[in-house]
Amino acid sequence: MYPFLRLFWQLFITRNLPRLPLTGTHVSHHFCMPWDIDLWRELNNGRTLTIYDLGRIPLAGRVGLISALRRNRWGLAIAGASVRYRRRIRMFEKIEMRSRAVFWDERFFYIEQSMWKANGDCANHIIYRAAVTGREGIMVPDDVMATMENQEAAPEAPEWVAAWIKADTLRPWPPMQDAQE
């Protein structure tokens, strides 16, 4: 089940925090709960993606995106992700999550998030490609930012993000056309 209560709690505790620039870092704290673990008694890899929502959605609120989405009846869609898992997160372990936008282009926003253990180790890291969607399809990030009254210029894509974007364009779509049945 989706962690609605945890999400509402995060939105509640962040409601009065200062607004962030689009590339600002939102820091949040979370616990790995019993319903988040897998057979190996660690944070389930799929649940990791869901828990990342608990940092990404409050980040969207703090940069002014949630208000723009509501005003314009837009949606927010994840169009791709790449995760790197490095350290196990065990039940009841507290983690610090860091969330920020790192780049945007003519179609997408690229959001970076990471989970950090109490000992300072990075447990996992993800890059998302996110799109704001409206009735016409994907909204141009510059138009979204104008609605948010944000004049920030897009930063240069970090080399690793640019490489991921390029690599993803090489993936065939639709996939597995050559698969034998």
UniProtKB/TrEMBL annotation:
Domain of life of the native organism: Bacteria
InterPro entries, per the entry: HotDog_dom_sf, THEM6_lcsJ_thioesterase
SUPFAM superfamilies: Thioesterase/thiol ester dehydrase-isomerase (SSF54637)
Gene3D superfamilies: Hotdog Thioesterase (3.10.129.10)
Pfam families: 4HBT_2
The protein's name in its UniProt record: Thioesterase superfamily protein
Biological source species: Roseovarius gaetbuli
